[in-house]
């Protein structure tokens, strides 16, 4: 029995690897239709007036690069394409702004955009909710210099930007529920429009905020990034990664069905299935 | 003075300092200074690690100090960024180089401003030498031995025209840099002394007094933040009119800055804690000590190269060795390892899907059906399955992405909202308990 469990696990891992790797090697084209929450975020970016800045809050770490990184890329691409000035800002994870900076630098060359004029990196600021309250009231008191130590008042991109009232849209890109703090103190006090780009597992909770209008648009994990690419008419990395993800999802559905069929067969024979016991006892295995 | 100490006898000083670091490392890692019989390897390893660490840290510090106090003129009271001239313009102006440095800011009354330069000018050359990369201006000024009173010829691009400017280096620029760095050092030392004194004072307080201090600080912070939030921005009260806004709001900025400092300290405490735990693991050769060694290697490497590339102007160039090593560490190790660790989850989710998700009740059956639809609705493969249904037809709501969207936006949303309300009420109760010092258990009852 132990031997069977050992091999079952390995076969499943092998199937998962195959479901992820084979679609990367074989060119497969599948349809993609942007969802309503992604369209709303796209329209919110388009609607940012020229006298206001967009804030791209990179509250993520390398672990979620596959989702949050590609969301960041899609949003920065849109900002560059539609000539919206923007600031990269981090307040949850210290490496976030540097990761965002790397993405922006790569795209800036392509769109001939200049640092300090078209975009800026405010860097990471610790302090969570207390810091955010002060920041929303007086941005330059909290973010006195950019990530490289240049006083932000000297950068043309900061013209007319003093409080959260001067922000046309703030998009929180994160695997956490940090949007709650922004809803309370940025939207709640200043009525600054908020966008939300969480990882796939966090997206379900955001629909209540979307329905109430506290969040104007939503990108749901990798699929959100792929939808945004579709809206930008630029199917890139996110769309390409959706194909292996499609097959991995399909495999998981098949595995759930197979596991339950075996479970029902075992129950009919009046015995407790080993897979069930094993699953409960060694869920993390 | 500091230059004098570091520069002439750098290697001797560094070696002595590294030995001191080594002894400190033995104390921290081994827990005591005297050797332990039978475990010499522990001390040899500790000394070696500490000497290497000490060397690297001190080299970084000495480089920074040399940079800080180098006796040369600053780059003319301007900040610049890289700029690439378009091919067409370069051709029209017969430029041999397309790279330049665009002025993003200049100090009022600085050398560049007095010489007639303006922000957005692109500096193409200094005294006949081309400038195109970060740190080029500083490097050229240093190489040419430019000091106060020197006259420099600057070739620049203004709009779409070439121009020439002659700039005399002013004393104000030189003094401003020295003054800034000296003030920075004084401020750092003063704040360190102040913090040490404050901590010493707090440490001398009896346990009960410490607790009362924390309780009082929590209460005051709670009063401030809740009052500021609920008081209206505009009011008819007479004393309010002078401000035309909630007067407490003006304190949000300073409080926010204080919050940053406190949060910064917590990060520092976390690092110290990790160093102590892993140091002890190595010192006592506990199980998994090679992992602790990897922790120290990663910590030191990121620390040294991170600080180095931040403070070394030349390191802003993408091909500079320090920059290359830092990028390799950040992108090649940190980013790649982080993503790899997270991606392993996919394999565990697959096995869990097979073994853990059992339909024992009707509710579980509904949940599984909803999960399948939502999963299919989010992937191109699912969209392809119902792709045959025309998106404008009467049956369009039956497309899998539309059913998935409906489940998320209606059924899921109602459930999420109910949970959010519950969480909010719980958070409110918890906040009140902490604010009023009613919370008991865990660390609330511990002696501090």
Please tag this protein with its features.
heterodimer; A: 285 residues; alpha/beta; Rossmann fold; 2 domains; six-stranded parallel beta sheet; 6 strands; 53% helix; elongated; disordered C terminus; B: 448 residues; alpha+beta; Pdz3 Domain; 5 domains; six-stranded antiparallel beta sheet; 16 helices; 63% helix; extended; disordered N terminus
Helices and strands in order:
The complex is a heterodimer of chains A (285) and B (448).
Chain A: H1 2-25, H2 36-46, E1 53-58, H3 65-81, E2 86-90, H4 96-111, E3 119-124, H5 128-137, H6 139-142, E4 167-174, H7 179-190, E5 194-198, H8 207-212, E6 217-218, H9 221-231, H10 237-268, H11 274-281
Parallel strand pairs in A: 1-2, 1-4, 2-3, 4-5, 5-6
Chain B: H1 2-6, H2 10-30, H3 40-68, E1 78-84, H4 87-92, E2 99-106, H5 111-114, E3 122-126, E4 129-130, H6 136-143, E5 151-158, E6 161-168, H7 171-204, H8 207-230, H9 238-241, H10 252-283, H11 289-311, H12 321-343, H13 345-355, H14 362-377, H15 380-385, H16 400-435
Antiparallel strand pairs in B: 1-2, 2-3, 3-4, 3-5, 5-6
Count of the separate structural domains of chain B: 5
Contiguous uncertain segments of 5+ residues of chain B: 1-11, 32-38
What is the count of DSSP helices of chain B, taking H or I runs of 4+ residues? 16
Instruction: Give the overall form of chain A.
Output: elongated
Can you put this structure into words, describing what you see?
- Chain A: Keywords: Membrane, Transmembrane, Transmembrane helix.
- With about 280 residues, chain A is of the alpha/beta class.
- Chain A has 2 domains: about 55 residues, no CATH class; about 200 residues, 3-Layer(aba) Sandwich (Rossmann fold), CATH 3.40.50.
- Helix content of chain A is about 55%, strand content about 10%.
- Chain A has a 6-stranded parallel beta sheet with strand order 3-2-1-4-5-6, sandwiched between helices.
- In chain A, strand 5, helix 8 and strand 6 form a beta-alpha-beta unit.
- In chain A, helix 1 packs antiparallel against helix 10, helix 3 runs parallel beside helix 4 and helix 3 packs parallel to helix 9.
- The longest helix of chain A is centred in the C-terminal third of the chain and has 32 residues.
- Chain A is elongated, with a radius of gyration of 22 Å.
- Chain B has about 450 residues and is of the alpha+beta class.
- Chain B has 5 domains: about 70 residues; about 110 residues, PDZ domain (Pdz3 Domain, Roll), CATH 2.30.42; about 60 residues, no CATH class; about 80 residues, no CATH class; about 80 residues, no CATH class.
- Chain B is about 65% helix and about 10% strand.
- Chain B contains 16 helices and 6 strands.
- Chains A and B meet through helix 1, helix 4, helix 5, helix 8 and helix 9 of A and strand 1, strand 2, helix 10, helix 12 and helix 13 of B.
């Amino acid at each position: 029995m132990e031997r069977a469990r050992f091999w079952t696990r390995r076969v499943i891992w092998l199937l998962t690897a195959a479901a992820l790797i084979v679609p990367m090697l074989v060119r497969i084209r599948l349809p993609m239709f942007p969802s309503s929450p992604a369209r709303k975020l796209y329209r919110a970016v388009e609607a940012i007036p020229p006298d206001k800045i967009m804030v791209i809050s990179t509250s993520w770490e390398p672990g979620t690069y596959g989702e949050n990184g590609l969301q960041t890329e899609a949003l920065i691409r849109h900002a560059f394409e539609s000539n919206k000035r923007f600031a990269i800002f981090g307040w949850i994870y210290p490496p976030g702004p540097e990761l965002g900076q790397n993405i922006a630098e790569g795209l800036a060359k392509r769109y001939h955009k200049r640092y300090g004029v078209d975009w800026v990196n405010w860097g990471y600021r610790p302090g969570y909710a207390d810091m955010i309250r002060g920041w929303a009231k007086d941005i330059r008191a909290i973010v006195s210099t950019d990530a490289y130590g240049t006083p932000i008042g000297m950068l043309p991109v900061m013209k007319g930007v003093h409080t959260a009232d001067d922000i046309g849209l703030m998009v929180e890109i994160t695997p956490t529920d940090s949007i709650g703090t922004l809803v309370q103190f940025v939207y709640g006090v200043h009525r600054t429009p908020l966008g939300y780009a969480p990882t796939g597992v966090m997206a379900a909770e955001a629909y209540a905020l979307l329905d109430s209008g506290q969040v104007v648009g939503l990108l749901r994990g990798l699929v959100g990034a792929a939808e945004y690419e579709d809206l930008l008419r630029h199917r890139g990395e996110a769309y390409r990664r959706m194909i292996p993800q499609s097959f991995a999802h399909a495999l998981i559905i098949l595995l759930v069905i197979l596991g339950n069929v075996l479970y029902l067969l075992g129950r009919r024979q009046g015995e407790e299935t080993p897979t069930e016991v094993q699953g409960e006892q060694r869920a993390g295995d | 003075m500091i230059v004098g100490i570091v520069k002439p006898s750098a290697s001797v000083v560094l070696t002595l300092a590294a030995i001191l670091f080594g002894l400190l490392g033995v104390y921290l890692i081994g827990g005591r200074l005297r050797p332990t019989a039978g475990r010499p390897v522990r001390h040899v390893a500790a000394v070696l690690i500490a000497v290497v660490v000490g060397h690297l840290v001190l080299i970084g510090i000495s480089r920074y100090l040399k940079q800080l106090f180098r006796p040369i003129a600053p780059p003319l009271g301007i900040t610049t960024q890289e700029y690439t001239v378009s091919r067409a313009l370069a051709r029209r102006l017969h430029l041999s180089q397309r790279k330049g440095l665009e002025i993003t800011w200049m100090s009022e009354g600085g050398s560049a401003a007095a010489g007639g330069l303006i922000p957005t000018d692109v500096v193409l050359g200094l005294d006949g030498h081309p400038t195109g990369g970060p740190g080029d201006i500083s490097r050229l000024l240093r190489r040419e031995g430019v000091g106060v009173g020197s006259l420099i010829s600057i070739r620049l691009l203004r709009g779409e025209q070439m121009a020439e400017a002659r700039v005399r280096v002013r004393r104000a620029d030189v003094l401003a840099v020295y003054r800034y760095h000296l003030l920075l050092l004084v401020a750092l030392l003063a704040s360190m002394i102040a913090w040490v004194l404050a901590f010493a004072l707090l440490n001398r307080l009896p346990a009960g007094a410490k607790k009362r201090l924390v309780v009082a600080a929590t209460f005051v912070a709670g009063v401030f933040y809740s009052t500021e939030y609920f008081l209206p921005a505009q009011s008819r009260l007479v004393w309010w009119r002078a401000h035309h806004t909630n007067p407490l709001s003006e304190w949000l900025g300073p409080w926010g800055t204080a919050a940053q400092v406190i949060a910064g300290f917590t990060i520092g405490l976390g690092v110290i804690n990790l160093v102590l735990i892993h140091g002890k693991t190595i010192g006592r050769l506990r199980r998994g000590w090679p992992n602790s060694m990897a922790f120290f290697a990663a910590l030191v490497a990121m620390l040294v190269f991170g600080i180095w590339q931040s403070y070394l102007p030349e390191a802003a160039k993408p091909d500079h060795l320090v920059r290359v090593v830092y990028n390799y560490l950040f992108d090649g190790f940190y980013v790649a390892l982080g993503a790899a660790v997270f991606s392993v989850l996919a394999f565990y989710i697959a096995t869990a899907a097979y073994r853990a998700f059992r339909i024992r009740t009707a509710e579980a059956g509904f949940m599984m059906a909803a999960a399948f639809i939502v999963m299919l609705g989010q992937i191109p493969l699912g969209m392809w399955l119902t792709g045959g249904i025309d998106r404008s037809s009467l049956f369009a709501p039956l497309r899998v992405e539309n059913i998935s969207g409906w489940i998320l936006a209606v059924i899921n949303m109602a459930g999420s909202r109910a949970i959010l309300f519950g969480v909010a009420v719980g958070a409110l109760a918890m906040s009140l308990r902490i604010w009023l010092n009613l919370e008991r258990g865990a660390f609330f009852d511990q002696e501090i």
